[in-house]
Amino acid sequence: MTFGAKVPFLRPENIANDTAKSIDVVLHGLEYLREQGESFDYVVLLQPTSPLRTCQDIDSAVESLIDIEGDSLVSVCKVDENPVLMRTIDDNRLKPIMNFKEEDLRRQNLPKVYIFNGALYINAINTLLKKKSFVNEDTIPFVMEKHKSVDIDSMIDVKLAELVLKENIND
């Protein structure tokens, strides 16, 4: 079937499936572009499952990375549930997943925690080729609002994104 999209190159079969890693896809694309004589300083990955980021978010993230003279930036959002309060179940007993002093378990005392939201990954090409990862020890966070951080992986995520768009929720 033809839908009118023009694709300059196709991914090899081993990275054109549901288990392919984004880093492998980007590295393949960079290799192809280098073979074509193209060169760039940075690569920006915009995953299609994060449709609520704006052009302003992208511009602000790029400006932040350049201002800080960084090599790696990833968008994140604050999480509501702190992992310090989470437990696994092992041998029918609750086990902490993180060590934290019991006397500090008041929510007000817990550190703020952030999660990758999948909306923006910006990396210097040289660092990305060297580390082969979007995230490293020097990665800069770009904090986004929760309503812009909907990552569509299920129908409930689609409904949430539709609600955000319908209600025209802004910063």
Quick structural summary:
This protein has 171 residues and is an alpha+beta fold.
List the helices and strands and how they pair.
Elements lengths: L21 H14 L6 E4 L9 H14 L3 E7 L8 E4 L2 E4 L17 E11 H7 L8 E4 L11 H13 L4
Parallel strand pairs: 2-6
Antiparallel strand pairs: 1-5, 2-5, 3-4
What does this structure look like?
- The longest helix is centred in the first third of the chain and has 14 residues, at 22-35.
- By secondary structure, the protein is of the alpha+beta class.
- The protein is built from four helices and six strands; from the N terminus they run αβαββββαβα.
- A four-stranded mixed sheet has the order 1-5-2-6.
- The mean pLDDT is 91.
- 28% of the residues lie in helices and 20% in strands.
- It is globular, with a radius of gyration of 19 Å.
- The protein has helices at residues 22-35, 55-68, 125-131, 155-167, and strands at 42-45, 72-78, 87-90, 93-96, 114-124, 140-143.
- A hairpin with a 2-residue loop joins β3 and β4.
